Amino acid sequence: MGLRSRLNINICYLIVIAAAIFYWVHKSVIVKSADALTICEQVKISKSQSEEHITKRFSDWQAQNQNNVAEIVHNAYEQKESSLNSQLVTALAMDLKEEQREVLAEIPKDFEFVELTENLHLLPDVVLRITNLESVSDTRNYLISLIKSLSSKEKEEAIELLSRSHRDEDKLVAIDLLSAVGDQTKPKILNRLLSESPSETLLSSLVSFSKTQDKKQIIALVSDVIEKRLFAEKDETRKLQLLSISAFPDGFREYAFSLVLRSLESDDVKHQQLGYVIAKNWVGESKEKLTNRQLQAISDSAKSVLNDTSLPVEQRLASLQLLEVMPNI
């Protein structure tokens, strides 16, 4: 075989080998590209799954956290409720402990206690305990708060019991609670309080209460007691003190007016002071009940004191303050 023929054969071999190599390389690249695409897809899927997993875990954590918060609030409420219930038990036997007073100090003023509402059989014990504690006692104030959280009907029983106490401070609580009960109960309680020769402090509170009521029966009850006591009283100062806590009287206006006018012109400093207080109250609250003659008499008396330079400055100043509230006649 000639040299040329051998060369041709070798060249053919080389071409075949080159073609085979090219095919193998090309196939490898395609496979690797496919693998690369598969890996990318897997990465995408893995990433998506990771995001879903993270989202789910966050949702689970959030739900669990909310459940924990709800559980904490519930437990805190139960603990406070338990603490409050233990306070009621403690308060009926002894003074509240320091930590119990601290719990009360944190409770809003308008908080409605339920301990007594849920244990109404203890109401007589609560009232009895109130009537045996000093008025400045934190324990007493707590027990009064329990009564204030009761319904109107339940308050009536508490007021009935408190009004029978021999102490003014307990009767004052009864008067304070009276506004929250029905009108049928009020006259009965007032009759009891007024029939026991109430002190000036109680009378003053009863007068203030009667001024907030629309029922003429209630106003008349208080006025009648003041009138009877006024006529029975011999001491001039006591008479003026009674008038100082009442409105301008309807049934005995002329008698009361003569007492006050006389006090404005009195040499007794205490009588003068009470007279100015009463006159200012009458002029300020009952202009329509005072006649022009009475208003003129008060004005003339006050001017006389104001122009008398021999009188103490305090007395003349009181007359000026009275003139400042006088209407034009």
Topology at a glance:
Layout: H1 3-93, H2 98-106, H3 123-130, H4 138-148, H5 152-162, H6 168-178, H7 185-194, H8 200-211, H9 216-232, H10 236-244, H11 253-264, H12 269-285, H13 292-307, H14 313-325
Fold and architecture overview:
The chain is mainly alpha-helical and 329 residues long. Among the domains are: 72-150, no CATH class; 248-329. The protein is 75% helix and 0% strand. It is built from 14 helices and no strands. It has helices at residues 3-93, 98-106, 123-130, 138-148, 152-162, 168-178, 185-194, 200-211, 216-232, 236-244, 253-264, 269-285, 292-307, 313-325. Helix 7 runs parallel beside helix 9 (216-232), helix 10 packs parallel to helix 12 and helix 11 packs across helix 12 (269-285). The termini are far apart. The relative contact order is 0.04.
Summary keywords:
single chain, 329 residues, mainly alpha, 75% helix
Shape: elongated
Strand runs, count: 0
Poorly predicted regions are 29-34, 68-84
In angstroms, what separates the terminal alpha carbons? 159 Å
How is the biggest beta sheet arranged? none
Radius of gyration: 46 Å
What is the beta-strand fraction? under 5%
- Average pLDDT works out at 74
Number of separate helices: 14
Global structural class:
mainly alpha
Order of helices and strands: HHHHHHHHHHHHHH
| Helicity, as a percent range | over 70%
